[in-house]
Amino acid sequence: MRIDKYLWCIRYFKTRNVAANAVKKGHVRVNGNVVKASREVYPMDEIVLRKNQIDYQLTVLDIPTSRVGAKLVDIYRKDTTPKEAFEHDELLKFAKDHYRKKGQGRPTKKDRRDIEGYLDESE
């Protein structure tokens, strides 16, 4: 099965066209190599997928015949993404929530310094 179709089938992308564009832009690697959308995927292939500033690491377990339901996705792939990849995303969410609490648009320079100080402490 093609890599773009596989990523669409296991619900990493909403449409196959979006999946193909991500592959074209070089956001998808199979076994460490940047690939074209027509690249065939086989069981035990390692896929690294960059989506929403997170590098997802997947292992292909099986090839679906068509798009699968959300509950069945784990049959076809194993997600080996480290938890550290999501922690940066959590910090960005904190920063966005901090900005929204004040309700005054863009944060002041002092607010941005406070956020940067929080981010430095958490590392």
Describe this structure in words.
The protein contains 5 helices and 5 strands; from the N terminus they run ααββββαβαα. A hairpin with a 2-residue loop joins strand 3 (46-51) and strand 4. Helix 1 packs across helix 2. It has 2 domains: 3-81, Structural Genomics Hypothetical 15.5 Kd Protein In mrcA-pckA Intergenic Region, Chain A, CATH 3.10.290.10; 87-122. With 123 residues, it is an alpha+beta fold. The longest helix has 19 residues, at 84-102. A 5-stranded antiparallel β-sheet has the order 2-1-3-4-5.
Compute the CA-based radius of gyration. Answer: 18 Å
Oligomeric state of shown chains: single chain
Which descriptor suits the 3D outline? elongated
- Count of the separate structural domains: 2
- Widest sheet, order of strands: 2-1-3-4-5
Overall structural class, as computed from helix and strand content, comes to alpha+beta
**What fraction of residues sit in β-strands?**
15-25%
